[in-house]
Specification:
The structure holds 2 protein chains of 2 kinds.
Chain A (H helix, E strand, L loop, with lengths): L2 H17 L4 H25 L1 H23 L3 H9 L5 H12 L3 H26 L4 H4 L11
Helix pairs in contact in A: 1-2, 2-3, 2-4, 3-4, 3-6, 5-6
Chain B lengths: L6 H17 L4 H14 L6 E5 L2 E8 L4 E8 L7 H15 L5 H13 L5 H18 L4 H25 L2 H22 L6 H9 L5 H13 L2 H33 L5
Antiparallel strand pairs in B: 1-2, 2-3
Helix pairs in contact in B: 1-2, 1-3, 1-4, 2-3, 3-4, 5-6, 5-8, 6-7, 6-8, 7-8, 7-10, 9-10
The chains are: A mainly alpha, B mainly alpha.
């Protein structure tokens, strides 16, 4: 993994944060979270395979996003969406649809199940972090706060 | 009821806030939570909210006059403007701290709703930067990134000036992805730089990918809001399918004409 790829993840995340109208003061954080997720993903990819590394990277992103959300008093979704964006199996789902359109069924099946596994890994990664209680991030017990929300 | 409150007005206001959040890409539970908090802060304990991905159902009981407030609002699937979600979230925080009266809240919500649009140039710039960066992330060289940057700029111009104004979501996405593929093919044919079609096209179509709908769908399913989550995922699948149709048609036409490059 080279510096150029980390930079690409950083600026790519920022670009999409701009598209989603995220205010300026959060852009750098979003970029760092996106790059971090990509670093975790590509470091683990060689050892653990795609699904497990997507899971770990999503969990890392969700963890940092929740922390940043508490720190900056902003909905967590701001950081989560932009941070997770590089991992979204956009290309995978797109290739599945493309293979279906061009009737290459074997290729469609393999890339489709890959994309599905990625989705499940992301759901699991997010859920795991959401089970952590809120005081874990804010350091104090909040009244009325629902667990993980 | 603890003190005099206009239940109708309170519920109307919290519904308006919820609607802005929902149509700009907030998760279901956050919308419900915010509506609950706002109405509670203004003294309405009896509000019930049921939020789906494209509709809000509210009922409330006015204990004083023994009347019922009930309203259903349809919220069409919309773009994503997280700034508005952030602002409403901040507003509900401040309401809970007692910083706003009801009338001030209504005023503030109106300002948030109108908001200011981001400049078109910025939108085009972000689109092209995102396309270029993702082409490199998907395993492309710097040249693929450059080609995607160009294709992204054209895509951004097309999205801002044509598809946002005149085209439906489906046609817009098909035409936009076809356009991007044509640009990538042209770059491949007209220059002698070695290119990687897969990452070039893959990067250039990324700005069309419905990231917010997809991630929110996953989030909602994670929270147990299965109906809304499924609808949002289906919405993003639809877009993926449109993109694939656009790219696929152009690629197969070009391979028919030239007899050459097939993926």
């Amino acid at each position: 993994m080279t510096l150029s790829i980390i930079l690409a993840a950083f600026f790519g995340t920022i670009a999409f944060s701009i598209l989603y109208d995220i205010p300026k003061e959060y852009l750098a954080t979003c970029g760092v979270i996106g790059a971090l997720g990509w670093i975790v993903y590509s470091l683990l990819n060689t050892y653990l395979g795609n699904t497990a590394s997507i899971f770990t990277a999503t969990a890392a992103i969700a963890l940092v996003s929740r922390y940043a959300a508490v720190k900056k008093k902003t909905p967590e979704i701001v950081f989560l969406i932009s941070g997770i964006f590089p991992l979204v199996p956009g290309a995978g789902i797109y290739w599945t649809a493309y293979y279906l359109v061009s009737s290459q069924m074997d290729a469609a099946l393999s890339s489709g199940s890959g994309a599905l596994k990625t989705c499940f890994a992301m759901v699991l990664g997010i859920i795991v972090i959401h089970e952590l209680p809120q005081w874990f991030f804010s350091g104090k017990k909040q009244k009325g706060a629902v667990n993980g929300r | 009821m603890a003190f005099d409150v206009d239940v109708n007005k309170v519920l109307q206001t919290s519904m308006e806030a919820g609607k802005i959040m929902l149509e700009n890409g907030a998760e279901i539970f956050r919308v419900e939570d915010t509506m609950k908090r706002i109405s509670r802060a203004f003294g309405v304990e009896e509000g019930n909210f049921f939020v789906l991905s494209n509709g809000i159902f509210t009922t409330g009981l006015d204990g004083k006059e023994d009347k019922c407030f009930a309203k259903v609002e349809q919220v069409p699937v919309h773009g994503a403007d997280l700034l508005k979600v952030i602002e409403i979230n901040q507003l509900s925080r401040e309401i809970c701290n007692g910083q706003y009266t009801l009338d001030e809240t209504i005023e503030r919500i109106k300002t948030i709703r109108e908001g200011k649009k981001k400049p078109k140039a910025l939108q085009v710039f972000a689109t092209s930067l995102g396309a270029g960066c993702f082409a490199i992330l998907l395993g492309g060289t710097i040249w693929d990134g450059l080609a995607s940057l160009i294709a992204g700029t054209i895509l951004g111009l097309f999205m801002v000036n044509i598809s946002a104004k005149y085209l439906s979501k489906i046609t817009g996405n098909i035409l936009a992805s076809a356009l991007v593929t044509i640009v990538c093919l042209a770059f491949n044919d007209l220059t002698s730089v070695p290119t990687n079609m897969m990452s070039m096209i893959g990067g250039s179509i990324i700005p069309l990918v419905p990231g917010v709908a997809f991630v929110n769908g996953i989030r909602d399913i994670g929270d147990g809001d299965y109906i809304s989550g499924t609808v949002r995922l289906l919405d993003s699948m639809m877009v993926f399918l449109c993109i694939a149709v656009g790219v696929g048609v152009v690629l197969s036409i070009s391979s028919m004409i030239t007899g050459g490059f097939v993926l």
